[in-house]
């Protein structure tokens, strides 16, 4: 049913993945030149570009993966009558979340090369939200599996 604990976990997962689209994922500031490079889910760009800074890099795969993961989680909530389908969608969501983390890490590496290689950038909240979503997905799958085991044990008693 919709009021189950796994539905709460899946809703929180969808909120976390949707917020990845709006919060910064990674940033790097060069103290000497004052340039700041910020990675969002849709672009990797300088905050205050100088005359010779490279153009912004489109990072739409991060946004697409995060949005798709949030959509799968919301769809998974309403598949409560088929727990096996929910488990399969949970596996799909696991792959999507891992791909989001991988794409974020890849584009942060691209950003490292764009601005003063000697300095290290910092990961922002947008990088850690998919990790939270991954944990929520694992918890939801655990409770879905527990419900399936409970239903099977009740079928054996009949």
How does this structure look, described?
The chain is built from four helices and five strands; from the N terminus they run H-E-E-E-E-H-H-E-H. It has 158 residues and is an alpha+beta fold. It has a domain at 5-22 and 60-118 and 125-157. The chain has a five-stranded antiparallel β-sheet with strand order 4-3-2-1-5. Helix 1 packs antiparallel against helix 2 (60-77) and helix 3 runs antiparallel to helix 4. The radius of gyration is 20 Å and the shape is elongated. The mean pLDDT is 90. This is Transcription termination factor Rho. InterPro entries: DUF4293 (IPR025635). The chain crosses the membrane at residues 7-27, 59-78, 90-107, 127-144.
Write out key terms for the chains shown.
single chain, 158 residues, alpha+beta, 5-stranded antiparallel sheet, 4 helices, 63% helix, 10% strand, Transcription termination factor Rho, DUF4293
Number of strands: 5
Instruction: Give me the strand/helix succession.
Output: HEEEEHHEH
Which term fits the overall shape? elongated
Strand order of the largest sheet: 4-3-2-1-5
Question: Roughly how much helix do the residues carry, as a percent range?
Answer: 55-70%
Radius of gyration: 20 Å
Q: What distance separates the N and C termini? A: 22 Å
Biggest pleated-sheet summary: 5 strands, antiparallel
Q: Could you tell me the strand content as a percent range?
A: 5-15%
Number of helices: 4
Mean pLDDT: 90
């Amino acid at each position: 049913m919709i009021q189950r604990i796994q539905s709460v976990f899946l809703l929180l997962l969808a909120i976390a993945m949707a917020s990845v689209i709006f919060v910064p994922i990674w940033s790097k500031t060069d103290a000497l030149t004052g340039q700041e490079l910020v990675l969002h889910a849709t672009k990797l760009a300088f905050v205050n570009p100088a005359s010779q800074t490279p153009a912004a890099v489109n990072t739409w795969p991060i946004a697409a993966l995060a949005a798709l993961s949030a959509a799968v989680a919301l769809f998974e909530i309403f598949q409560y009558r088929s727990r096996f389908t929910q488990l399969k969608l949970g596996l799909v969501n696991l792959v999507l979340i891992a791909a989001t983390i991988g794409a974020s890490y890849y584009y942060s590496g691209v950003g490292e090369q764009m601005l003063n290689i000697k300095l290290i950038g910092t990961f922002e909240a947008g990088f850690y939200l998919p990790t939270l979503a991954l944990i929520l997905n694992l918890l939801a799958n655990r409770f879905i599996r527990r419900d399936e085991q409970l239903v099977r044990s009740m079928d054996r008693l009949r």
